[in-house]
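Sample entry as discussed:
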Amino acid sequence: MKSGLHRVCLLAMLLIGSADARAEFGGIGRAPTASELQAWDIDVRPDFIGLPAGKGSVAEGETIWAQQCASCHGDFGDANHVFTPLIGNTTADDIRTGRVASLKAGGSYRTTFTKVSSISTLWDYIRRAMPWDRPRSLSVDQVYAVLAYLLNLADVVPADFVLTEQSIVQVQSRMPNRDGMTRDHGLWDVKGRPDTRNTACMRNCLPGDPQVSSALPAHASGSHGDLASQNRPFGAVRGTQVGAAATPASADASATSALPSALNANGCMACHAVDSKLVGPAFAEIAKKYSGRADAESYLASRIRDGGSGVWGSVPMPPFPQLSADSVKSITKWIAQGAPR
C-alpha cells in the first residue's frame, strides 16, 4: 500500500485542486471521498509500494488461466493468434545474468518476458486491464495466482510456488531482463534535445533504397484488425493497413459510415473485419450465414452477450455482457442487413 505521507500529500493536492475547480466553475463538482481515492489509487511501483497483501499459487493460476486467459494467449502463454506471445525466448542464463541475450543479438522475436524488467509492471497491468473483456474483475489473490502461473511458464518459479507480497521481492531478482532497462536515451532526460542521436542526411547521401530493419511480421499482421482504420486521420503516425479488404487510411470517410460506432467503441474490430477473416470470421460472412433466419438478430445478440465456441473454429468468442442493449441492437441489426460498408 502507499505510504502514509504519500497518501496525505496526494489527498491534499486533490483537495486543493478540487477547491480551485469549485472557485473557477461556480461550485461544479465536489471533493473525492476516501473510498473513491482508494479505488482510483491502485498503481504498484517497482519498489512494490502500492502492492496489496495477497497470495496465489501456480496451480490456482493455471485454473484461472484456462478459464479466462487461454482463449487469447494460449494454454502456455506462447500463442500469437490473438495477441503477441507473453512467454518464450528467454533462457536459464538470462535468469542468471538479468539480461536477455536475444535482445542484444537482434533478429529474434520478442515476448513480454524478454522485455519487461520489473515484475511490478506485470502485477499492475494484469490487475487493471485483464481479462480483456472484463478489466479489473480479478480479485487480488487471483492476480497473484495468474502471475505465479506466468512466472512458472517462464521458468522463473517452480510449479509448487505461492506468490505473495513478501515472496514477490525475491522473484524480482530472477526476472530474465531485470537489468535490461536503460536510461541512455533522450526520453529519460530530454533537456531540450530530441530522443534520437541521428542527424538528417542532407548531402552525399548513400545511393539506393533504404534498408528496413524493423517491420510487422507476417504472423502478427491482422491480429488486431486493420490498424490503419483504428488510427486518427491526422498527425504524423499512421497505422499499417492489413487484411485484403482493409480500408486505406486515405480513403473517404464515407466508405465506412455504415459501420455502427459500437464496433470500434467495444473492441469488435480487433478480432473481426468487415470482409476478411481475422481472429474471428468476417462480419459479411456472419451476415451471409444467418441471412435466412427470421430470428437472426436475437440469436446474434445472445452470442454477443454470452459468447461461444465451435461454430467458426477453435478460437472462442468471449462474452460481452457489459454491452448496452442499444449497442447490441445496432450491431445485430447491421449484420442482419448484410454488414454493409
In short: The domain at 55-172 is CATH 1.10.760.10 (Cytochrome Bc1 Complex; Chain D, domain 2). The radius of gyration is 24 Å. The longest strand covers residues 55-57.
